[in-house]
Write a structure and sequence with these properties.
The chain is mostly helical. Helix content is 69%, strand content 4%.
Length: 272
């Protein structure tokens, strides 16, 4: 496994991570990758060679080993680390997509034209991509912890296992190499994985809470702006009403007598 490429990938994701994300990366590097490379691989080594059974029956040790260890701890942890980092590729690819759009936009409209203020800023679609990657990472960690729990009976490694699988002639005792040391490393890796789950959940809560606070702040500022505009319009209407000129009203009606009315009432013209 190329751990340098793995490190380069996570280092690239570190640029777009929050404080919780950076702590998560540090835990993955120090307490999982380094422990895995430096110590865990050497402790497990050739597991089947260290798995001894008190029988000479051909095939019996191999079958018993496959029965009690269907998948090695080391290989399971390697798969876990690979799958946990895969969601981070979503963030890196999304930022690369933004960079490509920004480059094409500037090539078309000039260098002074900008499509994004910052392509790595978590807003819009990138925020949702980052949040989904956290959910995926948390789900993968939980799934692998569950698999480890189911396969190895609550992460426990006994010193001796009793095997009755064919072609063993009867119940045989098989001894695991370095059981206490393997147990310590197993608990350590499980604890580091649980810590990563807690950090991912904290980061999810932090992102959602920050987004909600931003939305509430925008709504309050919008309501405040609407209230100020409404008050300004009221003040302008009140000022324009006070500046209207007062006109005198002529209460004397103007009454004209036409020919028909004069012909029907001769005295009306004299009165008018």
């Amino acid at each position: 496994m190329d751990w340098k490429m793995f490190q380069a990938l996570l280092s690239g994701v570190n640029k777009y991570s929050t404080a919780f994300g950076r702590i998560w990366l540090s835990v993955v590097f120090v307490f999982r990758v380094l422990v895995y490379v430096v110590a865990a691989e050497r402790v497990w080594g050739d597991e089947q060679k260290d798995f001894d059974c008190n029988t000479k029956q051909p095939g019996c040790p191999n079958v018993c080993y496959d029965h009690f260890f269907p998948i090695s701890h080391i290989r399971l942890w390697a798969l876990q680390l690979i799958f946990v980092t895969c969601p981070s590729l979503m963030v890196v690819m999304h930022v690369a997509y933004r960079d490509d759009r920004e480059r094409k936009h500037r090539a078309k409209f000039g260098e002074d034209s900008k499509l994004y203020d910052n392509t790595g800023r978590k807003h819009g679609g990138l925020w949702w991509t980052y949040l989904l990657s956290l959910f995926f990472k948390t789900g993968i960690e939980i799934v692998f912890l569950y698999l480890l729990h189911m396969i190895y009976d609550s992460f426990y490694l006994p010193r001796v296992v009793k095997c009755e699988v064919k072609p063993c002639p009867n119940q045989v005792d098989c001894y695991i190499g370095h059981p206490t040391e393997k147990k310590v490393f197993t608990y350590f890796m499980v604890g580091a994985s649980a810590l990563c789950i807690v950090l991912s959940v904290c980061e999810i809560i932090y992102l959602i809470a920050k987004r909600i606070a931003r939305v509430v702040r925008k709504m309050k500022s919008r309501d405040r702006l609407v209230a100020l505009q409404h008050q300004r319009y009221k003040d302008e209407d009140r000022g324009s009403y006070q500046q209207l000129p007062m006109k005198r009203l002529d209460l004397k009606p103007t009454f004209r007598v036409n020919d028909e009315m004069r012909a029907s009432a001769p005295n009306l013209s004299t009165a008018a």
